[in-house]
Design goal:
It is found in: Cell membrane. The chain is α/β, with parallel strands linked by helices and about 350 residues long. About 35% of the residues lie in helices and about 30% in strands. The chain contains twelve helices and 16 strands.
Length: about 350
């Protein structure tokens, strides 16, 4: 208790706010590999990260950013070169077996046996985790129900749709009741309907059991589903926060104009734009960032028409997560490429 002074001048105890329970914590985490001709390749560079118990956290980044390498380190499947990390309260170097007991892992590519039934896949996995036959039967029935696959439990995996297979893999990762579930690109290759089904299951899992979900993705709409986002680029964590806070930090709206003569129109727009406002021209038209973009459109259109330049389209939009990524890395996520 920290004492405070009341209106009568007497000291009264004020309780401290409890510290959040951390599911994942890293400090200075590094993973390097020997490169050609004596060089060193750094896959993860000095990662400092805290993820609270019960949180849904997304690692957002392009191909080669270090997302999957970080998950391998956190699941004690690879040894860090430097720094340290704890997962579910266990140090990944000092107590790797305990880490593995308390985490579930959904790999980017399917590892189900297509010739076995859904139930057989789960029971084999349960036995590998050391569950007794009785416990394995009970947990298999429970996770199949959670995944909405009870009626398909005796179906061969090869007969299941892509969305059903992914839900089955999530169910498999839950068999040993992990405290932290790592999902590496959980909906890659699925159609929009199947992706929505998977996320519905993940939200239900979090709400029912308070599970911690650590997701890597390059899908912006998936990142929007998460409580917080960490943007990783070239092995470095360049920004983190809630989706709303990250977008709010960008601040200004994006205005895009397409005209009959974009290069000439750019000069007119530059004369009107606020000082230090970057006005760019590319195949999409003229773009700039200004506060209250909708209010700027009439002014810009009037000036352009007065200069004899026809405005074909004009739009204003609030910042997106792709804008956030561009702000911190200098390129859009789509241009950078998705994946691992």
């Amino acid at each position: 208790m920290q004492p405070s002074t009341g209106d009568d001048g007497r000291l009264t105890p004020t309780p401290y706010a409890p510290e959040p329970v951390l599911a994942v914590s890293t400090r200075g985490l590094v993973k390097s590999y020997p490169g050609p001709r004596g060089t060193t390749t750094h896959a993860v560079r000095g990662l400092d990260l805290d993820v609270a118990q019960g949180e849904t956290f997304a690692f957002l980044g392009p191909n080669g950013a270090g997302k999957s390498t970080t998950i391998a380190l956190l699941c004690a499947l690879a040894r860090p070169t430097a720094g340290h990390a704890t997962v579910a309260g266990a140090d990944v170097l000092a107590r790797p077996h305990q880490v593995r007991r308390h985490v579930g892992m959904l790999f980017q590519h399917s590892t189900l046996d297509a010739d076995l039934t859904a139930e057989q896949n789960l029971r084999i996995h349960a036995r590998l985790h050391g569950l007794s036959r009785r416990h394995a039967r009970r947990r298999t029935a429970e996770v199949l129900s959670t995944a909405g696959l009870t009626d398909r439990r005796r179906s061969q995996v090869r007969t299941l749709s892509g969305g059903m297979r992914r839900r089955l893999e999530i169910a498999r990762a839950l068999l040993h009741s992990p405290r932290v579930l790592f999902l590496d690109e959980p909906t890659t290759g699925l159609d929009p309907h199947a992706r929505a089904e998977v996320w519905e299951q993940l939200r239900a899992l979090r709400d029912r059991h308070g599970s911690t979900l650590f997701v890597t993705t390059h899908y912006l709409e998936e990142a929007e589903n998460c409580d917080r986002i960490g943007i990783i680029d070239r092995g470095r964590l360049v920004a983190q926060g809630t989706p709303l806070a990250l977008k709010a930090a960008i601040g200004d709206d994006r205005v895009v104009l397409r005209t009959s003569d974009d290069p000439t129109a750019r000069k007119v727009v530059c004369d009107l734009a606020p000082p230090d406002c970057a006005v760019t021209v590319d195949t999409g038209g003229i773009s700039l960032r200004v506060p209250d973009g909708s209010a700027w459109i009439p002014r810009l259109c009037t000036a352009l028409e007065g200069a004899g330049i026809a405005v074909r389209t004009a739009s204003a939009s609030r910042p997106t997560l792709d804008d956030v990524f561009f702000h911190h890395t200098g390129r859009s996520l789509g241009a950078a490429g998705g994946g691992r």
